[in-house]
Specification:
Bound molecules: dinuclear copper ion
Number of helices: 1
Low-confidence stretches: none
Structural class: alpha+beta
Length: 167
Amino acid sequence: MHLHKYEKIWLVFGMGSLALFLIIIGFAAFWKGTHPQSHIETIDPNNVEAHEEFKPENLGLREVADGKYKVNIVASAFNYDMGKDAEDKAVRTIRVPKGATVLFQITTRDVVHGFQVAGTNVNMMVEPGHISRFEAVMKNSGEFTIVCNEYCGIGHHQMFGTVEVYE
Ligand code: CUA
């Protein structure tokens, strides 16, 4: 079998890049410990309330220590349940001071959702049966939109909220 010179070059290039990317993935996964945000921690998606962090009264923002906050959220099509405010209205905005360390804990009752706080490095996939956690330091003040970035159905575009970081 005769292979044309350019054919050989592109064959080597293609297989080489495949090997290179597999090495990068292997390095990130096994040496650096990079893995999905769910950390293999499971939860019953039909009964998320059974988990302490996702009981209705524990949803939303809580200050756990000086400058340290925790936000518990239950996602479902097509809403982020962040608890109720003093007037019994659904919370749509999370307010934290600049420089706060915020641990986001989120799970879903139904399908896969996304949880991205645009303009920050908070970006998680939320899978049914798993708890996604990410701790972030809110370095910049302003209003940041929470968006679902996994297509979850007809009301996907209606899934949003706000993180307000004040000075
Ligand atoms: Cu939830 Cu898209």
